[in-house]
Write a structure and sequence with these properties.
There is one protein chain. By secondary structure, this protein is α/β, with parallel strands linked by helices. The protein has one domain (10-131): 3-Layer(aba) Sandwich (Rossmann fold). 41% of the residues lie in helices and 18% in strands. The chain contains six helices and five strands, in the order βαβαβαβαβαα. The chain has helices at 22-32, 54-64, 80-87, 99-115, 135-143, 154-167; strands at residues 10-15, 37-43, 71-76, 91-96, 120-125. The chain has a five-stranded parallel sheet with strand order 3-2-1-4-5, with helices on both faces. α2 links the parallel β2 (37-43) and β3 (71-76). The structure holds 4'-phosphopantetheine. Residues 14-16, 43, 79-80, 108, 111-112 line the site of 4'-phosphopantetheine.
Amino acid sequence: MKRIKHEPSVAVCPGSFDPVTYGHLDIITRASEVFDKVIVAVLNNMSKQPLFSVQERMALLQDVTRDIKNVEIDHFDDLLVNYMMEKKAHVIVKGLRAVSDFEYELQMASVNRKLNEQIETFFMMSSNQYSYLSSSVVKQVARFGGPVGDLVPETVEEALRRKYVEIGRG
Ligand code: PNS
């Protein structure tokens, strides 16, 4: 499914987004400036124990990307390449933070290419100020009531606060 030149370029930013951070938002925003349409696709991963439901993660993503007109929020629970065929998307966009991300991302990109060689993975280097940032780090800090205002948008900060009040520190 090679893209015909006059067709819009559709990229997918896949991930768990549990929850979305400023690091994700940086990559989504920059991707939206390169591609005609960016679909942020939340994986409904049964094997992980997420803090937020898929619906909650999507609602937070909707809120923080509301000003970016060519971004769409969706979810998937299939192989990524199958989901992409369904969406007529050609490019996977991933952020790379540090060398430690490289091995895992190389593996994923290689498997996806093996599964469907028409789909390309593009990597963007995370902006320096977010090179240490991950959803896991945010959750660790928020769980103990630490400040996460520099790490996630305000709606996400509030959602984290509410969630830990609701479920306790676990
Ligand atoms: O934010 P994450 O958890 O690092 O995102 C990982 C994600 C969702 C990109 C990856 O797990 C994925 O694409 N899963 C879907 C299943 C799939 O297609 N696997 C094939 C590559 S091994």
